[in-house]
Amino acid sequence: MSIAFIGLGNMGSGMAANQARSGRPVRAFDLSAAALQRAEEAGARPAASAVEAVEGAEVVITMLPAGPHVRKVYEEQVFGNAPRGALLIDCSTIDPNTAREVAGRAQNEGYRFADAPVSGGTIAAEAGSLAFMVGCHEEDFADVERALQPMSRATIRAGGLGAGQAAKICNNMILAVTMLGTCEAVALGERLGLDPERFFEIASKSSGQSWSMTSYYPWPGPVPAAPSNRGFTGGFATKMMLKDLKLAQDAAAHADATTPLGAHAEAMYALFDKLGYGGADFSAVIQMLRGRLDLLEEFQSKA
Ligand code: NAD
Q: For atom 38 of ligand 1, which residue has the closest CA?
């Protein structure tokens, strides 16, 4: 199965490397020469352009920053240059409407298309253990799953075209809301004299339990792998969470859905970002709620 891989940034570099490691021929392209060189070192064959990368490819995978990049790459470089019938898979996180529009164009041009955003950060991208949420026609899913296999620990079909993006932004809206709730409760408990570690023991076995608590507790100690144990470095950056929350709010406005907590979460993370903490893990928002931003000095943006 020959792969064209476009977008070799933080996520795409590890993903393309896993495709190459599985023995598939990979032609890679990125606007950044340094990214292209890393891909070559990982076993991919660099291309001079996206057009060159997709020529003769059976599968085209894109991992780009946002909707406008995805639209531009597909409309200006992939369509008409990848062989008709090729499977096009966009793994970027973008809004469901753009995903559906690009998918519609792809179908008109004679391609099969899937939106397949991921859960899991750069560590999972490097380890080949991402979770993919897929929007595609049912008859294409087996091929999509096979194409994603070297990068995946789980590939789940969410529904038709655009459904993968819908699942992604809804999931991340839950994540933001439960994290903010957890942070507020820990900060309140502290004021009330509770030991945050003891509170974890109680709430993680009570109805306050969530993934934000048991896998990502914003206080050091109870969950050793959580970014709270390493000064909120690494993990999932506030500015990335903010991007996903904005996508959720745009989608909600489009669909006339009521998402007041999602809107509030977006406002909270926008404020935290504006204060200069866009590079901190999203669970670091607990320090704002505790009135202890002084503990996050290293993240204060210089811009
Ligand atoms: P990134 O900015 O590190 O990488 C994007 C790459 O795309 C860059 O190397 C850039 O040069 C390249 N690019 C941009 N326009 C291009 C074009 N026209 N042609 C070729 N290359 C082009 O971003 P990332 O962190 O790898 O994220 C990629 C996507 O994955 C985003 O949509 C993001 O929301 C999503 N995502 C990221 C994470 C994460 O933890 N980083 C987790 C889940 C999902």
A: 121
